[in-house]
Amino acid sequence: MKIVMVGSGYVGLVSGACLADFGHEVVCVDKVEEKVAALKRGEIPIFEPGLSELVRTNAAAGRLSFTTDLAGPVAEADAVFIAVGTPSRRGDGFADLSYVYAATREIAGAISGHTVIVTKSTVPVGTGDEVERIIRELRPDADFAVVSNPEFLREGAAIEDFKRPDRIVVGTEDERARTVMADIYRPLYLNNAPILNTGRRTAELTKYAANAFLATKITFINEIADLCEQVGANVQDVARGMGLDNRIGSKFLHAGPGYGGSCFPKDTLALIKTAQDYGTPARIVETVAAVNDQRKRAMGRKVIAACGGSVRGKTIAVLGLTFKPNTDDMRDAPSIAVVTALIDGGAKIRAYDPEGMEQAKAVLPAGVTYCKDAYECVAGADAAVIVTEWNIFRALDLDRVKAAMAAPVLVDLRNVYRAEQVRAKGFTYADVGRGDMAAEEQAGIDAAA
Fold first, then answer.
1. Catalytic residue among 263, 307, 371, 377
2. In terms of pTM, does the model score above 0.85?
């Protein structure tokens, strides 16, 4: 089939490359000439494992191409996917749909013959209705249908998620459009991927509900971690005990510095705003968003506490900057709040991330020293903080780390290490919610009791 992907950002590029790999003829359209030129040269603007090879292979095979011209490809397309950004709008947190509607107007002027317009971008309930209204107003003669087909891609595992999805949600009441969508995703029938056919508004809400629920799980276990620290329990064991219940499941029950990234922060805010507009406030989600913001700042205070209550004049090594491993995405990364809090406290920051340092320079405060590896980062530091659990931080040579540091203090915000292992090496060690405090701390509590 002939498919146009409007927008070659994270969702558009991954989706376009995967659809081309299925054998479809895909044209990715983007307004930024420099980006299109780079993609034609095989230069990928984002880091996603396996994506560079997938793009190059399908471009070489003639199934994937890039252009700034929307009209020509759209006129020949069976389906046009809208995969532009929907960032949080300043002021109220609602999804900014200006890019979606701008793309819709351009598409309207170019469609020819029966065309399925697919909103792949994450959009609030009712957006598909507005997309349809715009096209009908501009092109009352057009033969088209508007479908909601939300993406459920995890950064760092997006290709696997696209090719082996938990589900494919297709929102439309139009039977011809449903047939086109079934043909597009037919290659996934081999993997028995379930296609959930729903109404368009239902599909739009499903994406927001799913992300809000996952954000709630993360925030819930983070609050339980705080309680564990106070009562001497281990949050990892608590999470395992919860997760073995099939009704709950183990995924997203990992205590840490809070969620970030391109989806959860903006999608929870958009859902909150939508619910308020319809007179059905989502109080749980409102609390989740507020608690998560507080969580990130609290992690900065946790580092300061591990350093004796002050970091003024001290050098802190920050290991990991992106919001999760296997991506270069810095959007709403917990490291931003942690680094800002430490700098506000008078600390000097040295930082290292395998992929995210260029992106970090645009969002972190000035004055951060970026290092070539973890060992250079910890050299001369008064404390080291693991913020993102990249694999290369999971098996550091602790003897070498200790020898390089000015003071052996390790704050592990991802619970990568076992406390007894690190303390046996002579470190002062702090983790998140495991209740495995040092013996002298426990003795003090027992004496007080």
1. 263
2. yes
